[in-house]
Amino acid sequence: MLVLGLTGPSGAGKGALAAAFAAYDVPQLDTDAIYHTLLVPPSACLDDLTAAFGTDILAPDGTLNRPALAAVVFAPDAPSELIATLNRITHRHILDETRRQIEIYRAAGKFAVLVDAPLLYESGFDAECDRVIAVTAPREVRLARIIERDGLSREAALARLDAQKPDEFYTEHADFVICNDGAPALLEEEAARIINTLKGGGR
User: Fold this and answer.
1) 79: Cβ–Cβ under 8 A, 6 or more apart, which residues?
2) Number of Cβ within a 10 Å radius of residue 55
């Protein structure tokens, strides 16, 4: 079974491409969604987070209080290693669960599984992928998508875009690069091209 890593900046359209792959019986693992499931107690990930950052990061119901965690990690006077600690904990648990679910699909005899991971390179999981697909989009297209999807003001959406890494970060080491400019049939065509290539029928 092939493990396909999917990455790209916010608003590029990774989710839409993953949906296009579903037509070829390629299941998707969304690492953001996996992270949310790991924050429901009882949770080893939550245990590690509270051990590192204290129980004040928990809401009364025992789930993660995201603003409280952000206040600790991103405080102006917070040591820089706190972010590294947060990433180390979360990446480890997310990748362990991702691997577990990959093996379920492998046992089911799937041809491939698509792992949607915005932090694919940062987490090091690209080394465990057989191929990497990077999706990019023109800046204004991404801006419009983020505003519509997340209900942000233009200023807030621009701030998010400015905090993203450049396209080259995602595309430089990718095996397939898709510029999702919004053409309706583009992603279906690209999914078909990639599947055809992986099955040995094209380039």
Assistant:
1) none
2) 10
**What pLDDT was estimated at residue 201?**
57
Bridge partners (DSSP) listed for residue 64: 58
How many angstroms separate the CA atoms of 159 and 141, rounded? 15
Yes or no: say if 57 and 49 are a contact pair by the CB < 8 Å rule: yes
82-116 pLDDT, tens per residue?
989 999 999 999 999 999 999 999 999 999 999 99
Which residue, 131, 119, 130, is CA-closest to 95? 119
Q: Looking at domain 1-27+112-203, what is its CATH homologous superfamily?
A: P-loop containing nucleotide triphosphate hydrolases (3.40.50.300)
The angle subtended at Cα 122 by Cα 33 and Cα 54, nearest 5°, is 65
Nearest to residue 14, comparing CAs of 157, 119, 155? Answer: 119
How far is Cα 151 from Cα 172, in angstroms, rounded to an integer? 31
